[in-house]
Design goal:
Pfam families: PGM_PMM_I, PGM_PMM_II, PGM_PMM_III, PGM_PMM_IV. The protein has four domains: 147 residues, Alpha-D-Glucose-1,6-Bisphosphate, Chain A, domain 3 (3-Layer(aba) Sandwich), CATH 3.40.120.10; 84 residues, 3-Layer(aba) Sandwich (Alpha-D-Glucose-1,6-Bisphosphate, Chain A, domain 3); 105 residues, Alpha-D-Glucose-1,6-Bisphosphate, Chain A, domain 3; 82 residues, Alpha-D-phosphohexomutase, C-terminal domain (TATA-Binding Protein). The protein is built from 15 helices and 23 strands. Strand 4 and strand 5 form a beta hairpin. The protein is globular and about 65 Å long. The two termini are 32 Å apart.
């Protein structure tokens, strides 16, 4: 199967262009996608990478060769594609490699209503069929409709979070030369927001820094700009703008767990008693705050497929991950960094305190952040840690190893793609968190590479 086996991942397609992923492959996937979904029409969008437009056009040719009409939205963020799939009721394809380096590209595929397609829900079948079709898709017969969906996307988000009456806010946004440079101006137009844009020029070579706000070095410019301009907050988006990172008026990072709790409280005010999903490395404060506001917290494994599956199963109103992905029932259970950012703006602009004081109520514990250790034997390292903490707390293995005591917890889990173990620890006070973190890392170090 060649490159297809390598580039088809659990939830999307990603590879180096053109060595692993090229236009004949994209064309074959377009045909296979239509065969799998049985769709009469599909919608397609792409990010700003140099290879994205040609790859998306190849996919369109493949889809049209199977008789499907194609609505081509052109440039868009991943959540704009989800909006298109949800509002038009069509299966969709987004061409992006998110925060990956410039030489990469990929696809995120969904059924009508933004329902994700993963390896166990159709992606493997698309891969296998595309492998048979490469180079032999045939001539196009379906029609092509170019459609600007940016205005509709922005308008829809503004119906979900009303920002028209907030106090004037000064906001710095770092788009990282990614798709937020395209979507933020449309969403913010006419709002009481004084916008300072950083790196809004669409450039898939990422000349200033990687479009990955989870890495602290990529936030430095935003933090400086917030402090220098006296802004109320800063927002950083990844390349396809589906993730959003927040910094407060001091330029300090706000934990995605605090953002999850803040948005959960706002959604529970609209939907009393609703379910809220959180993954198992979000702060212990998240389920506590959800319960205090009458909601039902549900804990899941790490990964957007698990979040989305649990949201669909429970009808949850909202879901948050510590990776700064935020999911909304009102947005077809899909994730939208922009929608999360708008909730933060609404919470801040609806009262007079600075953001650091607003989020302090949602930041109850001291967290280590995610720490990676290269190990020679993941299973042996987990066994040694389990043995070392025997009898000291409750143990569960929903995702790796979690040990919980009244005033601390940690989770140690294996990477699916690298010989790494990922540690997250949290405690009521910083010294306890540090002690637990150091103890786990010392045990893991016994089987380090």
């Amino acid at each position: 199967m060649g490159d297809l086996a390598k580039i088809f991942k659990a939830y999307d397609v990603r590879g180096v262009v053109p060595d692993e992923f090229d236009e004949p492959i994209a064309e074959a996937v377009g045909a296979a996608f239509v065969e799998l979904t049985g769709a009469d029409s599909v919608v397609v969008a792409h990010d700003m990478r140099e290879s994205s437009a040609p790859l998306s056009q190849a996919f369109v040719r493949g889809a049209r060769a199977r008789g499907a009409d194609v609505v081509h939205a052109g440039l868009g963020s991943t959540d704009l594609l989800y909006y298109a799939s949800g509002s038009l009721g069509l299966p969709g394809a987004m061409f992006t490699a998110s925060h990956n380096p410039a030489q990469y590209n990929g696809m995120k595929l969904c059924r009508a209503g933004a329902v994700p397609i993963g390896s166990d829900t159709g992606l493997a079948e698309i891969r296998d069929r595309a492998a048979e079709l490469v180079g032999g898709v045939g001539a196009a017969s379906g029609s092509l409709i170019e459609k600007d969906l940016l205005t509709g996307y922005a308008g829809h988000l503004r119906t979900l979070v009303d920002l028209s009456a907030v106090r004037p806010l000064k906001v710095v946004v770092d788009a990282g030369n990614g798709m937020a440079g395209h979507t933020v101006p449309a969403v913010f137009e006419g709002l009481p927001v004084e916008l300072t844009p950083l790196y809004f020029e669409l450039d898939g070579t990422f000349p200033h820094h990687d479009a990955n706000p989870l890495e602290p070095q990529n936030l430095v410019d935003l933090q400086r700009a917030v402090r220098d301009s006296g802004a109320d907050l800063g927002l950083a988006f990844d390349g396809d703008a589906d993730r959003c990172w927040v910094v407060d008026e001091r330029g300090e990072s706000v934990s995605p767990s605090a953002i999850t709790a803040l948005v959960a409280v706002r959604e529970l005010a609209k939907h009393p008693g609703a379910t809220v999903i959180h993954n198992l490395i979000t702060s212990r404060g998240v389920p506590e705050i959800v319960r205090e506001h009458g909601g039902v917290p549900v804990r899941t494994r790490v990964g957007h497929s698990f979040i989305k599956a649990e949201m669909a199963r429970t009808g949850a109103v909202f879901g948050g991950e510590h990776s700064a992905h935020y999911y909304f029932r009102d947005f077809w259970f899909a994730d939208s960094g922009m929608l999360a950012a708008m909730h933060v703006l609404a919470a801040l602009g609806g009262q007079d305190r600075p953001l650091s004081e607003v989020v302090a109520a949602y930041s109850r514990y001291h967290a280590s952040g995610e720490l990676n250790s290269a190990v020679s034997d993941q299973g042996e390292a987990l066994r040694l840690v389990r043995e070392g903490f025997a009898g000291r707390g409750e143990v569960d293995e929903l995702d790796g190893l979690t040990v919980s005591a009244p005033d601390w917890w940690f989770n140690l889990r294996a990477s699916n793609t690298e010989p790494l173990l990922r540690l997250n620890a949290e405690a009521a006070d910083e010294s306890k968190m540090t002690a637990i973190k150091d103890e786990v890392l010392a045990i893991v170090g016994r089987v380090s590479v």
